[in-house]
C-alpha cells in the first residue's frame, strides 16, 4: 500500500507539473498573441503616419503651384496694364498733340502777318498748360 501511496503522490506531482507547464504555455501563447497584435498596430500606425505625411507633402506642393500661378497671373495683369497704358499714351499723342502740331504747322505756313504769329504763340502756351 505504501508503494501505491508513493505512486499516487508521484502521479499527483506530475499532474501538478503538467498543469503548471500548461499554464506557462498558455501564458506564453497570450504574450505571443499580444506581441503580434501590438506589432500589427504599430504597422498600421506607421502606414497611417506615412500616408498623412505624403498627403501633407502633396498639399504643400499644390499650394506652392497655386502661389506660382497667382504670381504669374499678377505679372501677366501688370504687363497687360502697362500695354494698355502705352496704347492710351500712343492714342493721345496721335489724336491730341499730333493734330495740334499739324494745325500749328498749317497756320504758320499760311501766316504772313505778325498778329497771327502772336496768336500762334498764345495757342502754343494754352496747349502747353493743358498738357501739364
Describe this structure in words.
The protein is mainly alpha-helical and 132 residues long. The chain is 96% helix and 0% strand. It contains two helices and no strands. The protein has helices spanning 2-110, 114-131. The longest helix has 109 residues, at 2-110. The protein is rod-shaped and about 165 Å long.
From the spread of the alpha carbons, the general shape counts as rod-shaped
Main structural class: mainly alpha
Low confidence ranges: none
| Strand element count | 0
User: Could you describe the largest sheet, including whether it forms a barrel?
Assistant: none
Along the chain, the helix and strand elements come as HH
Spatial gap, N to C terminus: 138 Å
Radius of gyration: 51 Å
Residue fraction in strands = under 5%
DSSP summary: helix tally:
2
Helix content: over 70%
Mean pLDDT: 87
Summarize the structure.
The chain is an all-alpha fold and 132 residues long. It has helices at residues 2-110, 114-131.
Summarize this structure as a short list of keywords or feature phrases.
mainly alpha; 2 helices
What is the element layout, followed by pairings?
Blueprint lengths: L1 H109 L3 H18 L1
